[in-house]
Amino acid sequence: MHIIVTGSLGHVSRPLTHILLGSGHAVTVISSSESRRAEIEELGATPAIGALDDPAFLTDTLTGADLLYAMVPPDMRRASDLVEFYREVGENYARAIRETGVPRVIYLSSFGAELNHGTGNILGAHHVEETLRGLTETDVTFIRPTSFYYNFLGFIGSIKSTGKILANYGGPNKIPLVAPRDIAEAIAQEVDRPGQHRKIRYVYSDERTGDEVARVLGTAIGKPDLEWVVVSDAEMKQGLLGAGLPGALADNLTELYASIHSGRLGRDFQANKPAEAGSVKLEDYAPEFAAAYRHG
């Protein structure tokens, strides 16, 4: 099978490319960076260097493909309008898929993507899902991962400056967590299954309270008494602005975290929770967090 992988060699796309190549698929990896070309070729994949906001490039690259793994890479140059960036890329995907007739698409979405407001940047994933649902001739699988472990890296500054994790969610409340490797494995499983016209698959690796997260990560960095303190939305926004985030991004993250705290973001996930979690647990991730903390 000829598979197009977007996301360059990022957190999910790199392990996914390894798995797909190991299964005998022909893989083309889209990257916006020319510097990735040699590394992609060394893996045994074909590089396609170009931008997702270039419709002609997308159409040319997707021609003849059997399956597209689609995601929207973060672009901090568009931090003030990330939701609109998602919308634009989703429309470019849809246009190229229609023109080339790619029969199957697996889209990396997010938990909470069924919601049409109050979810911060995840609203962008909602728009892409809605756009792809309009592809009447294409089988589309929506992969909805939960909160990435590596999102906790954003708390390193707070830990170093205050000795605490400060956020407007967490504390005694459970947070569904996921590792990129488990997402890649779930996507690869879907590749090898018959396509369905519309399918939603949630992926998670672990589910822990914020207090448990603080204890595990704190122990890993030599601070076993590390606390997770739940702050107000206003305090969260001020902390993000103080860390140098643009106003729009601070607003979106505050809104996203608030939706986790209220349980709204995870409601559909909880109703459709997979029978089995992935293999990468919080304790497995902790050494990676500790290494980033030491060098951050």
From TrEMBL:
InterPro entries listed in its UniProt record: Ergot_Alk_Oxidoreductase, NAD(P)-bd_dom_sf, NmrA-like
Organism: Neolewinella xylanilytica
Lineage: Bacteria, Pseudomonadati, Bacteroidota, Saprospiria, Saprospirales
SUPFAM superfamilies in UniProt: NAD(P)-binding Rossmann-fold domains
UniProt domain NmrA-like: residue ranges: 2-256
Domain of life: Bacteria
UniProt name for this protein: Uncharacterized protein YbjT (DUF2867 family)
Annotated PANTHER family: PRESTALK A DIFFERENTIATION PROTEIN A (PTHR43162:SF1), PTHR43162
Gene3D superfamilies attached to this UniProt entry: NAD(P)-binding Rossmann-like Domain, UDP-galactose 4-epimerase, domain 1
